[in-house]
Structures are given as C-alpha cells and as structure tokens.
Amino acid sequence: MFRISARLTTALTAVLLLGLSAPASQAATYNFTGVGVDLDITMGAPDNGGFDITNVTGTVLGVPVTLAGGDPGAGGEISPDGLFIYDNILYPTSNPVFDIDGLLVQIGQDSYANLWGNGSANSYSLYTSANGGYPVQNGSYTGILTATPLPSTWTMLIVGFLGLGFFAYRGTKQGSAAITAAA
C-alpha cells in the first residue's frame, strides 16, 4: 500500500508542478493607484529593459479605460489624437516605474489619458485630452505601483499547504499506529 501512495504522491506532484507552473512568457500584473487613477496593468514580453503593457483595466478620473495604442516599442509613438507620445512599457524594478513616454489609455470613444514617470520614484504626471482637444494636466502626484500575484502563484501556494497538511496528517497516523503496535 505504501508503494502505491508514494507513486501516487510523486505523480500528483509532477502533474501539479508541470501543469500549474506559469511559463516564463506569462504576464505579471501590477496595480497603479493615485489621485483619480486606479489601474490594473498586465505585462507581457520584455522590451527595452522593461516589459510591454498588454492590457489595462480600471478608471481614470472615475471613467473606465482601456489600453490604447498597443505595443509601439521603445522610442514611443504618437497617440491617435496626435497629442501624446507613449511607449506602453513598464519597468518592474524594486520600485516599478513608467518612463517619460509612459502609458496611453483610451477614455470613452475619442479621449485619451497619458500617464508617465517624472524621473523619481512614485512621481507621475497625468494629462488627458477630450475629443481631440488640447491636453489638460490633471496633476503631478505620487502614485504607487505594486505587483499582484498571478493566479498560478495562488494555486501553487494552496497546493503546497494542502500537501504539507496531508503529510502532517499521514505522519500522525503512522506515529499513532507505531505507538499502538508497541503497546
């Protein structure tokens, strides 16, 4: 019986490690919060020392936003309304930052917001444009960019605790059986 249990445990462990571990290309998610801004940012492939931003959800000034412009790459690109330069790259160092080209999000149909780093930790500027009108500075402020765990991270953590619980339970059963046999 012990051999079957050991084989089953080994097989389950191998399946979980192979099937649930995140591949290197899988994105990481960050949350950006600041005055009037609450964004969940998903990163993809490496680009110019940072990572391309592949998806954005959340709000800017209380209005839902989506990622605009896709992946222009290093050096930036001009926004569809011609008012902003952006590169949609996030630099996830120990203190994650946007560069001076920053992130472009679309607000509604023809409005955009550009969020970029001011060169120091947690210092950002936010400009918005409405329907192709002149950009308005909504503020230079401190924002916080924090990493959020991937679902596979939570899965592996839970599976690990379940495995520890199983082996602890199994150890107490075997220990009590040895005590009973000795008595």
Written description of the protein model:
Helix content is 28%, strand content 40%. It has 183 residues and is an alpha+beta fold. It has two domains: 2-22 and 151-182; 29-148. Strands 1, 2, 3, 4, 7, 8, 9, 10, 11, 12 and 13 form an eleven-stranded antiparallel β-sheet that branches. A two-stranded antiparallel ribbon has the order 5-6. A hairpin with a 2-residue loop joins strand 1 (29-34) and strand 2 (37-47).
| H-E string | HEEEEEEEEEEEEEH
Taking Cα atoms only, what radius of gyration do you get, to the nearest Å?
A: 24 Å
Average pLDDT score: 76
Shape: elongated
Salient structural properties:
183 residues, 11-stranded antiparallel beta sheet, two-stranded antiparallel ribbon, elongated
Structure, briefly:
The protein is α+β, with helices and mostly antiparallel strands and 183 residues long.
Describe the protein's topology.
Layout: H1 2-20, E1 29-34, E2 37-47, E3 50-60, E4 63-67, E5 77-78, E6 85-86, E7 89-91, E8 97-98, E9 103-107, E10 111-117, E11 123-129, E12 136-142, E13 144-148, H2 151-182
Antiparallel strand pairs: 1-2, 1-13, 2-3, 3-4, 3-7, 4-9, 5-6, 7-8, 9-10, 10-11, 11-12
